[in-house]
Amino acid sequence: MTTIKVGTRKSKLAQTQTKQTLALLQEKHPEVVFELVPYQTKGDRLNTISLQEIGGKGVFVKEIERALLEQEIDIAIHSLKDMPALLVEGCQLGAIPAREDVRDCLIFHQVGQSLATLPKGARVGTSSLRRKVQLLKIRPDLTICELRGNIDTRIEKVQEGEYDAIVLAMAGLSRMGWLDHPELSIEPLGLEACLPAISQGALAIECRKGDDQILDILQSIQDEETAACVTIEREVLALMNADCTFPIGAYAQKHLAGYQLDVMLATKEGECLYARVEGSKPEGLAKRAVETLAAQGAWGIS
Hints:
The protein has ten helices and 13 strands. It is an alpha/beta fold. Monomer.
């Protein structure tokens, strides 16, 4: 019987979504034993410091990729939005399962509250520049406050009244089974209001290049539409030479006639630049979107 060691972060959300992914693999390959190996990453250890201050690419994946390359583990499961556009030498994306809800949402301290009814100056917690600039475009009177920590820690903070609201990804709440939690007051944010992070809602299973037997196993749960769409989004990331801290949102989706890509980029002044491109094929969409942003002055961004 084959045993595959699986690396992932120690957080409750990471463990939960990894187990859900392994259940899909187990269903396809009952002959395989999957052994979970948790890691604490730099991003987890420095969870009181903003991601912008920590800096660098891959703060949530580097330690796990090192373990993969040193053969401590055989595969790694990540939130794809945490992964740099360029993978480390020797690693590859083995599979991208079907994507969860890509939207962001607000969770309120007061039940029945909404973005429209939050009082002037309300404290909204998020560590994301992307979320901050898009929220302030709708409600410039809000006070955006730094928020780090695991998903359960963040929810505790808003429930205790440290914030009037916080912003989280719908995907994480869904995977934790909390969307219908009776004590949580949740408002999804439409894509027209808040474009998600690149690859938000998608998971990635990473393996070593050349591990063809493992690659075959992983490919059994590949979702081709999700893979095509997040590949478009990640190409934007690569062309911008950006990382997960960059104030950029993007969402690619497949229609009957082809693909549509929406991109938002925030300037240093807090202005939101937008691009929407469409095409019958995914190739070239990211380049066209970046060119559209560049024509609006996007390259003055630090």
